[in-house]
């Protein structure tokens, strides 16, 4: 159900520790899974007790609307684990001019597992109703594969887009611009979308694997994590494909770590995040040099940033401050967004936007929605469920159009392999 921003409903949440569950994903809705997982920790939502939505231009209003919901809620939670108690899963558009909406969903039931403890959180009627039964698993549907084809921007068209980005850099419009291309396809009607989540979580356990309102993927990039006033974020910018063997792989990592082009791109992204976070944080620290982060298909240049904020500042507040980062937009941000709108022939929707969860305290974990696809669940019919996937690359002076196109091909691999 939807809530009016002026008067949030009163929610009663009961959290109880339950016996360990081998596969929490079995409890998600096959047609519309709500999932957040990384390194063996899971949050799985079932149903919707409350959904807050906002147009892209008003996404920032969700922070105050959520504060009202949390302040009005009655929470019985003795575990106090990250993700227990009152939790909402969320996904926001990349661009404030997007036709896509921002959404926060409080599930009727959330099942979580972290550090050896498993729990269930139920949203109950505020009338003293008895506690519900234990969660129930739903058997997996049959295996399926997707049909995937070119989107609005072909590989050749993408190289032309990169040239347009280089022209904007040469004219002094931007120092960096991140340009994406897309793939389009369908999965068979009635497909169990949990199988896609399962494939991504199995193949990329060190990423944030997410499923929110039809947006499903495996992101390597943390936008922000907030826990008790402590903030962490990870910047990824600069990418190279993994080598075919150990020697080639070491050479690829070294090449990335010493690449002037990639180091410049990375520095833009780090500076963007630090500058955005500084007015809202104290004790802010970032490493002077990036490290190379290994994923199954690519090496990334990575920098971790840590800071302290007031306990009144929520993760949702910081989304409006930090997004979009230079890692997914460019720099200067406003000029890069203008260039993206002019050059890309599509609305990114929620691609490269924030995706994650928030709790009653305003704590939460949010990633950038990369390496994924948006399924249009509203138009699913006998012909199948349509989806669109995106991948991008950071364009700076000296970028080679063909090399940037090949980088997007590598970034498409996680979602395309899982869809197959």
How are the elements arranged and paired?
Layout: E1 12-18, E2 34-38, E3 41-46, E4 50-55, H1 62-72, E5 74-77, E6 87-91, E7 101-106, E8 109-114, E9 117-124, E10 147-150, H2 155-170, E11 176-187, H3 194-203, E12 208-212, E13 215-219, E14 222-227, E15 230-241, H4 246-257, H5 260-277, E16 282-286, E17 291-294, E18 298-308, H6 315-322, E19 330-331, H7 333-343, E20 354-359, E21 364-368, E22 372-375, E23 385-396, H8 401-419
Parallel strand pairs: 1-5
Antiparallel strand pairs: 1-9, 2-3, 2-12, 3-8, 4-7, 6-7, 6-20, 8-9, 10-11, 11-19, 11-23, 12-13, 13-22, 14-15, 14-21, 15-18, 16-18, 17-18, 20-21, 22-23
Helix pairs in contact: 2-8, 3-8
Which key phrases capture this entry?
13-stranded mixed sheet, 25% helix, 10-stranded antiparallel sheet, disordered N terminus, 420 residues, 8 helices
Q: What would you note in describing this structure?
A:
The chain is an alpha+beta fold. It has a single domain, classed as Anthranilate synthase. The protein contains eight helices and 23 strands. Strands 1, 2, 3, 5, 8, 9, 10, 11, 12, 13, 19, 22 and 23 form a 13-stranded mixed β-sheet that branches. A hairpin with a 2-residue loop joins strand 8 and strand 9. Helix 3 packs across helix 8. It is globular and about 65 Å long.
């Amino acid at each position: 159900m939807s809530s009016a921003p002026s008067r949030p409903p009163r929610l009663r949440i009961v959290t109880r520790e339950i016996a360990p569950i081998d596969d929490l994903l079995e409890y998600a809705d096959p047609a519309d899974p709500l999932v957040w997982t990384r390194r063996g920790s899971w949050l799985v939502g079932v149903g919707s007790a409350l959904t807050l939505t906002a147009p892209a231009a008003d996404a920032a209003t969700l922070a105050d609307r959520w504060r009202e919901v949390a302040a009005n809620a009655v929470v019985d939670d003795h575990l106090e684990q990250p993700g227990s108690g009152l939790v909402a899963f969320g996904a926001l558009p990349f661009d404030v001019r997007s036709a896509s909406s921002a959404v926060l969903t409080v599930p009727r039931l959330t099942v979580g597992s972290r550090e050896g403890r498993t729990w269930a959180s139920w949203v109950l009627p505020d009338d003293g109703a008895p506690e519900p039964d234990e969660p129930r698993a739903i058997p997996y549907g049959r295996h399926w594969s997707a049909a995937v084809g070119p989107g609005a921007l072909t590989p050749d068209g993408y190289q032309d887009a990169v040239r347009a980005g280089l022209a904007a850099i040469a004219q002094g419009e931007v120092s960096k611009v991140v340009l994406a291309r897309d793939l389009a396809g369908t999965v068979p009607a009635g497909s169990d979308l949990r199988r896609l989540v399962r494939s991504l979580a199995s193949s990329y356990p060190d990423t944030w694997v997410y499923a929110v309102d039809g947006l499903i993927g495996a992101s390597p990039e943390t936008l922000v994590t907030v826990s008790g006033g402590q903030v962490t974020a990870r910047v990824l910018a600069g990418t190279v494909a993994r080598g075919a063997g150990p020697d080639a792989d070491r050479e690829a990592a070294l090449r990335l770590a010493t690449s002037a082009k990639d180091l410049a791109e990375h520095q833009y992204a780090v500076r963007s995040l630090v500058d955005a976070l500084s007015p809202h944080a104290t004790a802010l620290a970032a490493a002077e040099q990036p490290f190379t982060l290994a994923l199954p298909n690519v090496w990334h240049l990575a920098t971790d940033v840590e800071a302290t904020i007031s306990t009144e500042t929520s993760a949702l507040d910081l989304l409006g401050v930090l997004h979009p980062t230079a890692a997914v937009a460019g720099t200067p941000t406003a000029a890069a967004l203008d260039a993206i709108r002019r050059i890309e022939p599509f609305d990114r929707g929620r691609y490269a936007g924030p995706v994650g969860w928030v709790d009653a305290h305003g704590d939460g974990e949010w990633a950038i929605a990369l390496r994924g696809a948006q399924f249009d669940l509203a138009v699913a019919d006998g012909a199948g469920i349509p989806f669109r996937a995106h991948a991008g690359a950071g364009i700076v002076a000296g970028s080679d159009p063909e090399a940037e196109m090949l980088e997007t091909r590598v970034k498409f691999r996680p979602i395309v392999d899982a869809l197959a």
